[in-house]
């Protein structure tokens, strides 16, 4: 007997979060899921995404381990594995390794487009993904039993619930907290909700770079990226702190990928501009790391000219993520 669809969910955004949620929910044949993506295709900028133990366990729940095996990706194994090596490199001489990280699982690195492809392979039969559909507004209708999503092309769709998985600059989050703010009688509380809308610039740029493994090996046979397994961190002592610089490198087949994190002084959100992912000349990165160890400077000199600069924005944990029939795919701040 054919199963009747009794509930409909709209998800705004076909990134990792939206597609993973769609794959989970659409396992239930009674639920229809429609994912709306603003871009003309389901795609992800950036090279690879590192998957750590917790995400891997979610992947296993979803059966993504089978999809990985089909595509000949090695799957992580239980047991301690050597992870990144941290090195003090922000000086010309006498750099040293100061920490060798053990991780409770092998680290898995998956190209982002492959991950999106695998997630799409897990979507249920009552799930569809529609592209070139930018959500711009939401309207609660039918005495609060339905919610309509309005799109920039003038169309609309309704569902029982809507989930915003539309990234750090989320339109859904804007609607969500503006709606809450409008319900407040206390202007201080209203303002506090509005403050949750704009993401904040972390102060850091991430420059995504890569270099041919052959070219690097020819010039530096003993380069820092070769020893160890998988991923090697080349970092300043203050790695991971805003105000510091660090480089994370990971060999991947014929290419060594690396991300250079740099927090320039004197820049503010106003000077950063609206283009959050832009191609920049490689000289920008070379200049930012000029006083570092020769292995770092040498890798930067040899890197491919195409460097994309990501402005890293952050949203603090939100106090809640459900407002009637609209939910946000977001981390909730623990209540004090
Ligand atoms: C430099 C860098 C390195 C990172 N490395 C890692 C890593 O190694 N491992 C890891 O786990 N995480 C990593 N992250 C974090 C990871 O990329 C994010 O956590 C993840 O992409 C969030 O997924 P998401 O689906 O919530 O949002 P996104 O990936 O931003 O996807 C949101 C989607 O919504 C679409 N959209 C936006 N607005 C609308 C709208 N109005 N209507 C419809 N669709 C819309 C967008 O086009 C996009 O497709 C990294 C982040 C950065 C910046």
Q: What global shape is seen?
A: globular
Mean pLDDT: 87
Look at the helices and sheets and give the structural class. Answer: alpha+beta
Give the ligands present.
Answer: flavin-adenine dinucleotide
CATH topology of the largest domain: FAD/NAD(P)-binding domain
Number of domains: 2
- The assigned CATH architecture of the largest domain is 3-Layer(bba) Sandwich
Strand content: 25-35%
Largest sheet: 6 strands, mixed
How do the SSEs run, as a string of H and E?
A: EHEEHHEEEHEEEEEHHEHEEEHEHHEEE
Specify the CATH homologous superfamily of the largest domain: FAD/NAD(P)-binding domain
Total beta strand runs:
19
Helix-residue proportion: 10-25%
Query: What integer value in Å does the Rg equal?
Result: 22 Å
CATH class of the largest domain: Alpha Beta
Poorly predicted runs are 235-243
Cα distance spanning the termini: 50 Å
Tell me about this structure.
The chain starts with 6 loop residues before the first strand and ends in an 8-residue tail after the last strand. By secondary structure, it is an alpha+beta fold. The chain has 2 domains: 7-52 and 110-198 and 316-328, FAD/NAD(P)-binding domain, CATH 3.50.50; 81-106 and 200-314, D-Amino Acid Oxidase, Chain A, domain 2 (2-Layer Sandwich). The chain contains 10 helices and 19 strands. Strand 1 (7-12), helix 1 and strand 2 form a beta-alpha-beta unit. The protein has helices spanning 16-25, 53-62, 64-70, 112-121, 171-182, 187-194, 213-219, 269-272, 283-288, 294-302; strands spanning 7-12, 31-36, 48-51, 78-88, 96-105, 108-111, 127-130, 135-141, 146-151, 156-159, 161-164, 200-212, 232-235, 246-252, 255-262, 277-280, 307-314, 322-323, 326-328. 31% of the residues are buried. The radius of gyration is 22 Å and the shape is globular. Helix 5 (171-182) runs antiparallel to helix 6 (187-194). The strands form 5 sheets. A 6-stranded mixed beta sheet has the order 7-2-1-11-19-18, sandwiched between helices. Helix content is 25%, strand content 34%. The structure holds flavin-adenine dinucleotide. Residues 12-18, 36-39, 49-50, 55, 134-135, 165-167, 171, 206, 259, 310, 312, 329 line the site of flavin-adenine dinucleotide. Flavin-adenine dinucleotide (FAD) is lined by residues 12-18, 36-39, 49-50, 55, 134-135, 165-167, 171, 206, 259, 310, 312, 329.
């Amino acid at each position: 007997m054919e199963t009747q669809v009794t509930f409909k969910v709209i998800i705004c955004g076909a990134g990792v979060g939206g597609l993973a949620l769609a794959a989970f929910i659409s396992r239930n044949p009674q639920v229809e899921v429609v994912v709306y993506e603003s871009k003309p295709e389901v795609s992800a900028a950036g090279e690879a995404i590192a998957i750590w133990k917790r995400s891997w366990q979610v992947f296993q729940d979803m059966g993504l381990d089978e999809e990985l095996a089909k595509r000949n990706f090695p799957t992580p194994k239980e047991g301690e594995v050597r992870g990144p090596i941290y090195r003090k490199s922000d000086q010309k001489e006498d750099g040293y390794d100061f920490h060798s990280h053990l991780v409770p699982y092998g680290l898995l690195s998956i190209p982002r487009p492959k991950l999106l492809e695998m997630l799409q392979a897990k979507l249920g039969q009552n799930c569809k993904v529609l592209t070139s559909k930018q959500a711009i507004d939401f309207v609660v209708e039918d005495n609060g039993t339905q919610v309509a999503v309005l799109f920039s092309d003038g169309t609309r769709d309704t569902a029982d619930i809507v989930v915003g998985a539309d990234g750090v600059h989320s339109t859904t989050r804007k609607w969500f907290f503006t709606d809450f703010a409008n319900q407040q009688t206390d202007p201080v509380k209203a303002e506090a909700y509005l403050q949750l809308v704009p993401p904040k610039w972390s102060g850091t740029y991430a420059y995504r770079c890569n270099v041919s493994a052959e070219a690097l090996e020819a010039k530096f046979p003993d380069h820092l990226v070769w020893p160890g397994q998988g991923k090697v961190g080349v970092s300043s002592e203050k790695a991971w702190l805003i105000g510091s610089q660090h480089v994370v490198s990971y060999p991947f087949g014929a290419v060594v990928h690396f991300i250079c994190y740099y927090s320039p002084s004197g820049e503010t959100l106003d000077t950063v501009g609206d283009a959050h992912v832009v191609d920049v000349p490689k000289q920008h990165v070379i200049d930012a790391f000029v006083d570092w160890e020769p292995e770092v400077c040498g890798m930067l000199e040899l890197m491919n000219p195409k460097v994309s600069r990501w402005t890293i924005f952050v949203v603090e944990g939100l106090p809640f993520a459900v407002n009637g029939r609209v939910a946000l795919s977001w981390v909730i701040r623990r209540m004090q």
